[in-house]
Write a structure and sequence with these properties.
The protein has about 210 residues and is an all-alpha fold. It is built from nine helices and no strands. Helices cover about 75% and strands about 0% of the residues. The model has no long low-confidence stretch (mean pLDDT about 75).
Length: about 210
């Protein structure tokens, strides 16, 4: 792969990743409630989710979803329902006092699983990857090496982006002591997740 093409892909991926969405909302919520201990689990979940979505897209699932209204609708509703469920759960999450360490610990595997599902169960991501990635593939060169490079690049950038958001949010955790502020953060993050679920349902399959 030409370095110029790889740099163009990396720049486009960074631009897409830095825009906060449901994944970043979940990352920040966990980081604020669980602190630095959450960073490794949620970053691993985001990386696995993007790896799953991008790999399935390159294997052809994106094309299948784009062609099958039934499969696309099913995955869309599953992803939307999960986002709404997490949003409601976050909205209703209790605030246990003003001390930063008072939040109930969440198992690392639970945080990893949530981050993975929110990232992977997004039909827009799969269809987007199948339309986005081919723009940077040279048909005159072997496909597999190029696909591996693009997948690894995107996954590493996604993990780095999630880590940056997680560390920034967990650093603020020590300064956020008032329950009212913590409650507002939970409800803002929950609203983003619920809104993303509603938008996923409303989003129409591209013709």
């Amino acid at each position: 792969m030409d370095v110029s093409v790889w740099l163009a892909f990396a720049a486009a991926a960074i631009t897409l990743l830095v825009i906060p969405g449901p994944t970043i909302s979940l990352v920040m919520s966990y980081a604020l409630s669980q602190g630095h201990r959450a960073a490794l689990a949620i970053v691993a979940g985001v990386a696995l989710g993007d790896l799953t979505a991008m790999s399935l897209s390159l294997l052809g699932l994106g094309a299948v979803l784009a062609a099958s209204a039934t499969l696309f609708t099913l995955l869309k509703w599953l992803g939307a329902a999960y986002l709404v469920y997490l949003g409601i759960k976050l909205w209703r999450a209790p605030v246990d006092g003003a001390e930063p360490g008072a939040a109930r610990p969440v198992a690392a595997r639970v945080m990893l699983g949530h981050a993975w599902l929110v990232t992977a169960l997004n039909p827009k991501s799969i269809v987007f990857f199948v339309a986005f990635v081919p723009q940077f593939v040279d048909p005159a060169r072997p496909y597999l090496p190029q696909a591996v490079i693009l997948v690894l690049t995107f996954v590493l950038l996604a993990a780095a982006n999630a880590l940056a958001y997680a560390l920034a949010a967990s650093s603020l955790k020590g300064t956020i002591r008032r329950p009212a502020v913590q409650r507002w953060i939970n409800r803002a993050g929950g609203s983003v997740l619920i809104g993303a679920g509603v938008m996923t349902v409303a989003w129409r399959r591209a013709s």
